[in-house]
Amino acid sequence: MKSSTRLPRARTENLVVREVDDETLVYDIERDEAHCLNQTAALIWKRCDGKTTATQAARALGKELDTTVDADLVWLAVRQLQRFHLVGAAGESPSVSRRELVLKYAPLALALPVIVSITAPTTVQAASCAGLGQSCATLLCCPGFFCFGSPPTCGLG
User: Fold this and answer.
1) Which of 8, 59, 86, 146 has the fewest CB atoms below 10 angstroms from its CB?
2) 66 and 35 both lie in a single domain
3) Residues spanned by the domain of 33
């Protein structure tokens, strides 16, 4: 069942994608999140077209990485991609034990899919700061000012 199940479609809208060496950087404009996909996660993400099965993706990944890969590894990556909203819903995505895969692929630990993600501040948040005499209860003080007092306000040190 899980090997013949088709992978979900990868999101393509509102994403900025850049490939850097063996990693793929994805910035999600809608969510202001930046993701760094290692080579394995990126290769699986590229195969998420709604047509490719987990077995087909595993074979292609195995050729690319010059190792044996099974459908469980593909589904682990798909679950991570879903968690970061980089693919659509997979219908019934098989459950995969990360622990079992880590033990199984321990000699090839670099083959495990990894996604590192951060939430970036919006432009308004990044540009906002509190000036002299303004409340610093919700904003940081602008450069050169310090937060003190009750209620907390920005002032000169």
Assistant:
1) 146
2) yes
3) 15-119
